[in-house]
Amino acid sequence: MTSITVSRIRQQQIALLIADGKRLDGRGLMDYRPIQIETGIIEKAEGSARVRLGKTEVMAGVKIGIGEPFSDRPDEGVLTTNAEFVPLASPEFEAGPPGEESVELARVVDRGIRESEAIDLKKLCIVPGKKVFIVFIDIYVLNHDGNLIDASALAALAALMNTKIFKYEVKDDEVEIKPGFTKLPIKNYPIAVTFADINGKLVVDPWLDEEEVMDARLTMTFDKDGRICAIQKGEAGTLSPKQVIEAANIAKEKTEELRKLLVKD
Amino acid sequence: MTSITVSRIRQQQIALLIADGKRLDGRGLMDYRPIQIETGIIEKAEGSARVRLGKTEVMAGVKIGIGEPFSDRPDEGVLTTNAEFVPLASPEFEAGPPGEESVELARVVDRGIRESEAIDLKKLCIVPGKKVFIVFIDIYVLNHDGNLIDASALAALAALMNTKIFKYEVKDDEVEIKPGFTKLPIKNYPIAVTFADINGKLVVDPWLDEEEVMDARLTMTFDKDGRICAIQKGEAGTLSPKQVIEAANIAKEKTEELRKLLVKD
Amino acid sequence: MTSITVSRIRQQQIALLIADGKRLDGRGLMDYRPIQIETGIIEKAEGSARVRLGKTEVMAGVKIGIGEPFSDRPDEGVLTTNAEFVPLASPEFEAGPPGEESVELARVVDRGIRESEAIDLKKLCIVPGKKVFIVFIDIYVLNHDGNLIDASALAALAALMNTKIFKYEVKDDEVEIKPGFTKLPIKNYPIAVTFADINGKLVVDPWLDEEEVMDARLTMTFDKDGRICAIQKGEAGTLSPKQVIEAANIAKEKTEELRKLLVKD
Amino acid sequence: MPKKTKLVNSKGIRTDGRKIDELRPVKLEVGILSNADGSAYIEQGKNKILAAVYGPGEVHPRHLALPDRALLRCRYHMAPFSVQERKSPAPSRREVELSKVIREALQPAIFLERFPRTSIELFIEVLQADGGTRCAGVTVASLALADAGIPMRDLVVACAAGKADGHIVVDLNDIEDKEGEADVPVAYMPNFDAVSLLQMDGILTIEEFEQAISLALDGCRKIYALQKEALKAKYQAIKEEVEGAEEE
Amino acid sequence: MPKKTKLVNSKGIRTDGRKIDELRPVKLEVGILSNADGSAYIEQGKNKILAAVYGPGEVHPRHLALPDRALLRCRYHMAPFSVQERKSPAPSRREVELSKVIREALQPAIFLERFPRTSIELFIEVLQADGGTRCAGVTVASLALADAGIPMRDLVVACAAGKADGHIVVDLNDIEDKEGEADVPVAYMPNFDAVSLLQMDGILTIEEFEQAISLALDGCRKIYALQKEALKAKYQAIKEEVEGAEEE
Amino acid sequence: MPKKTKLVNSKGIRTDGRKIDELRPVKLEVGILSNADGSAYIEQGKNKILAAVYGPGEVHPRHLALPDRALLRCRYHMAPFSVQERKSPAPSRREVELSKVIREALQPAIFLERFPRTSIELFIEVLQADGGTRCAGVTVASLALADAGIPMRDLVVACAAGKADGHIVVDLNDIEDKEGEADVPVAYMPNFDAVSLLQMDGILTIEEFEQAISLALDGCRKIYALQKEALKAKYQAIKEEVEGAEEE
To answer: Can you tell me the ipTM of this complex?
Structure first.
């Protein structure tokens, strides 16, 4: 049987190594694990992607529906992001309604996409005030080995970039589906980078064992123009203001690196 | 206090007798308990029936509402079947949302009615794509002494056959209720027969004590023309393919017998 | 840490004193604790009030929405009353969906308002059968020191009397909000008086320690014309018919007294 | 709502032909469900209500057990087909409130202290509703408790009175309940002259309220006699069964 | 629903080019998730389904533990993006039923009695649905159990047969499932000639049903061979890894 | 959404008359609810927020108890009437997230290890919301914890900064929060120069972000002074009460 509880000795080992600028799995403090991205893997979804970040595995599926706009934004499509900690991903995940961790995950990923205006929601209006496209992003965690946020943000963006919407015509306010597809209009490419603070030292892309010993977690999401579009600090530890600024500068660089996996110049 | 746990000795007794072709309550292996059916007992419901199968007692009520059709069947009424294991029926039933057993019961009864096209749903369309009749079948288990499926299927069919719909006129897509009633259009008469496999022997209509010792349960529903319209195997035991075919032939006969209780030639 | 469990000795003390016509906190049997009412404290709510009854503290907020009328009352606004036992009010309150006590509280307060026709719901119709104002009363218990019903009924009425509705025009069945406000049309002023029966003696306005020893609780709500508009007996004790009539006569007087806190002649 | 119906005519006769102080026909049966420890059935007008009792038995979850008495739990529930428009089977706020007041109405009659650390579960199922279901529910639940052999100080019986077209009337039916001016349900233990449930909605003067209470208590006393008959009938039936068996 | 599609053409060829007794391509992989104690993946047509097993382990909540055997729990669940219209992640009544029948289909194969007071948790996630997900779910779950090292009497394998355009056909795809005349999913333990899941909806004569069962069992036997291959491939891979390691 | 409002005018003055580095008026009160073990109230602009603490006390359910420290639980909740459109009392996903980050913001300040196997329950109720409720919630919760006598390393204080009409501004009000370009809530323990909550939404360059952090920390330090005053006032009041009592 698998146990994901890290023994005390291993915890000390991890922390000691990091103090020394090393990591138990051989990575440098600012190195990501190997990343694999596949898209279009679920033909029935309008968009889909699977991201493997080391042993962490996350899928994102995009479904397009038709519904009503929010009353304060009558001419914009609607984005809704949901995350499931599928119980096959970890002995600690349970079936049932989303817990606070999966709510946080979904909201952090959503924030990056929303604030960077990654999707051109204005172009998803069908009949102003009445009918708009709804973009459902469903994040599906299949194997949890740490840093779900970065993997999920990558999977969500990859799935969006892969999304096709059926063509349609509007007749008397009714939508008629026509043959063919167009691409979901994508305007920006937000990328999240997550740090773990372990005994005062920052590392990126913590794996599960590191997450178990980390004091604080810090996620910074940058848009394609190198601007921050979302931040989330997590866990009960603290960071100094200096660390935060330091992290921002590293994250900017790292997001540029990661963005190249999805966006070719 | 009543206990529904069958003692080990009694379990052995039941199994030994059945091996011998006999049953503890004196029935033959292929005999039903006495069946009583009353209809029209709930005047406020559009249709209703109570079935007593030995000490098992089940009510079914039919309510007719008006709602939207499913988008893929715009010109058909909607059938929805629900079953409540009312806690007064058994010390093992609990108040609360339906558990897997009552979901299964409702779905098996529903399947028989739906697949045999017992209700002529086309005739329940009011305004195509907009307004149709919704037929709510509510199965209410009042005393559980085994074989809830057959009792419920009988009660549901009896209640449907007993159902009246108010007359109406459509004006500008609005429904106006008129005086008088018409019968719910019934096209078929699905009847369920349930077997218990006890140590490799099949019996029909298991009572509660037999259900506690049975290895597998098999329900076969036949329509008025002697064709199978629903099957459900239950419990963790297995059946041989030969047993299954044997059961089908017996069930066909038995359903004809039971159907006569409701449908007079 | 605060404990709200009253010790046995204290219980006997309370009961003995009451048998003697006295109360532990020095009040007469038919005296209320000091009452403070503030209104308009939540500027974002259309109406609001806070009531302090001794150490009991209750807020009521009124929000106005627009929705559909009930089909059997197409030309009336809709009233809906909800009560939250906010967990900061008592170590015995828990976060989560309303329990039976908060449901009862909301329904008793609602009954007084509804039956006395305190709100002129006819004047809250916008487009008959289609659009009406919905009046949401939310009762928020902030500190529980007994007699939540009377405090809540007072807070709800005070909030309603304090409620303003935006002006509007109807164009093609659509509501257009205009500048300015009108008062919510109030027709009646229901006031609740609650008794505790302790060893056969009635007292009004029980505080928490008295509630813990009371045998029965009796709430009587009177309208501005001295007529009863709601009654609720609570707890597992009993009352004699004579006590009930006696209580009604006292309650009539007491409600007149309390009403003066809100309605000036 | 426009009041469409004349509830009491000039001769003092109500929509269902009753006089103002006349009860609807009441039919009571005891011991009709085989699994429950006790059960009973009532028809009062078109009300059709079943009650069943399980217990005293183990408490689940255990931490709810009381050291000095039995825990009484009560669920009042309406079948989806019991009312005009299909009711969702999930408990409504009304059902939550009625479960509470019915439990509190019955509790003072039961010697709960004889069964510490156990629970008594009471289930009331309204199969058809016709006004006054909480009162009929108390009446039938009381019989189910007795049938379960739960020791009681007295039977609890309930009956409503109210106001319809200006008249104080007893045992309101559905339309009187909905279109009448007031409804006062009362539960009562006759041997103790003790009211254990009392509610009111509508508008009444104190004088009218006194009258209503008095009419409701009269109603209670009449139904109490029927309760006792129903129990006697049950025991008679048992006795005959037993004696028949002995003679064989 | 108007039947728009010709499901079987005059040459006996189905919409996806298969003959009536031909299975869809099946791809099986064992041991693909690192956290689970056992896992497997199946593609059957466009079905894409993952299964994972945790256990035997502690039972939560504890009072559900069984004194004489392991508690088997099973969740069949569809991803929101697995079907045409987005599915709410909350379990539907259909998923509740399928979780039950799948659990009952697998249970007879497992030596639960060897692990009293523990639980075995089985999770089946349908990533893409294309008709026959419950059967593919049983097939892949069986491999996940084996991968977890849970001792089993036999692998359980499942396959449906049914009726489309009057023909009895094996392994229905999505459109045959929806527009065909009948669907008969069957789970089977070949070494025991034992059927552990059997359902049907649609309309069949007894003769057609016999044919369908026979075709379904043929399908089961073919997939059973693939299951064993997949397990072998997994152990081969492990063996090579180990030996590779030894050689280094 | 069309940006209708000019958030900062040409003189650098904001919609509510403040300068860009000016806080809204803050009013703090400690110890205002009699049942809670500790409580506090904050008004910041039109925000009106109550916080209450119960504990350390028994953990329910027990299996959640931690062997080496107290379990801190936190519920951030908005009253239905606290916002423009009535909010359902059921917790929204936003409230779930804020409950988590607020708990994590306060936890490092508390000596939880002194109370193993107990729980500390923190309830934050937003009675009126006006932008920046999570920060005001942290500030007031910190006082409630202190009022409950829970030993703390430092008070936690929180303040947001953000960007409105191109200006980096402190302590955003409702309209700046909704129509501004970015919002950066920060919680801080001044004695340790430690950030315990940090979020951002909107768009900022790194330079703007540095400025925002710096402004937010200035805001924190100012509110920290008010927190300490409020605590002092409370103890002064107690002291006077006690001394008054002694003099009598």
So the answer is: 0.94
